[in-house]
Amino acid sequence: MEIMLSIDENLLFLKNLFGNSIGLNESKFKILGGNIETGIAYIESICNKELVRRHVMDPLQNRTINCNLPANDIAEDIQAFYISSANIRKTNRMKELVDAILRGNTLVFFDNSKNALIIESRDVEKRSISAPENEATILSSRESFTEDIETNISMIIKRIPIPNLQFETFVVGKLSRTTLKLIWIKDIANSKLLNEVETRLRNIDIDMVEGTGVLAELIKDKAKGIFPTYQQTERPDMAAKRLSQGHFCIVCNNSPFAIICPITFWDNFKTMDDYAESPAASSLLRIIRFIAFVIAVIISPLYLSAVTYNHTVVPPSLALNISIGREGVPFPTIIELIGMTIIIDIIREAGIRMPGMIGYFIGTLGAVIIGQAAVTAGYVSASLIIVVAFSAIASFAISTTIIVNPSRIINYFLILLSGFFGMFGFLNGIFIILWSMATTESFGVPYLYPIVPIELGTWKDIFFRGPYNKLKKRLNLVAPANNNRIGNK
């Protein structure tokens, strides 16, 4: 629908569309010496009224019309000669005007003009940049994304100030009208994967997109397992790092996280501190994270299968201690283990939801008191408390929070298999998990790549972090057109 030639008709249309409760402010006044009538409209709660007064009202009311102006449409003339605001554009589409006013912009109408002006005047409260909470580091940047998309983009541009940094804007959600930007580096990112991401974003058909979590679920590959095929990060330096490697980044309005895709399983264990420490220290810490993931997943089911079915794999002295500790415990080991694991997860969730340091103390005291009381009362064995606590602590050492919940699901899955089938069930469960990982893809990139399929040139930054002058190659499937990071070889 195009705008109408009458100011009154345009303002009446907006008033009927929004009603009286949204805070629509619309008015008419004479400008340029009283020779021209104009109408403006904005929503008070999200518009910077001082900016409108200074850059729109004052220039138009305090100046007279120039008789030598070219005989163009009045909106074009005023945009070119009278209004000093840099962010201004004209349109004749009513839908575009409605979207603009809902984003805090000011609309300016003129009688007998086929165009209206949209003046950037957004004034929405936003959180200041703070330190990352979920991805804390020691030697890296202290900046994190906020809920404002423009602020987030500025932090990425600051880190990659090159013209090849490309942006494409999408608006998704029939009700939320959420703005998001797809970001990539031209001549590095895989154009085939880029087209796939763009197609998935355009095909989103839903009423509300509240943030990156919903968005990631809508565009990810068809799920064949529980592993995340995307990475959510609150760190702009991590987003910039991934962009330089050929990945894509999606930032979303109203969300303090960015989506990075495609990713592999090994990306879940990398942090920005890996590239701030020495290669030896970084490699050690990365190996510890891998070990922590394995411990969080397998130590509980291994204990269960050994105690319940496969007694011969346990050294006699250790088996005797476990047997003595279980004396008088009224529950089977599988019930004991599942119950304590659930209790630990409840304590962990309670600690997360409680504000600030209260959550930390609740989690610590809850675990200590409940564990000690359960052992003293004879409800659980001391050895099982050690195993469950070790598994829970190991899960906190995993660097990427998005892989923590899958590790907990795998833990429960293996506990059930080990409880019913012993070591046979445990080994089959491990096979099922590996098969799931091997058949999973992230936007066409195999999840275990570059281990499966093999690409030896990029192994220097998987389990270990090699020296920078040795990290010469980008992943071939992610950046096929430009996979040389250092030099020409």
Automatic annotation (TrEMBL):
It comes from the Bacteria. InterPro entries: Spore_Ger, UPF0353/GerABKA_families. The keyword Cytoplasm does not apply. GO terms for cellular component: membrane. The keyword Membrane applies. Pfam families: GerA. GO terms for biological process: spore germination. Keywords: Membrane, Transmembrane, Transmembrane helix. The chain crosses the membrane at residues 287-309, 329-347, 359-379, 385-405, 412-435. Belongs to the GerABKA family. This is Spore germination protein. It comes from Clostridium thailandense. The lineage of its organism: Bacteria, Bacillati, Bacillota, Clostridia, Eubacteriales.
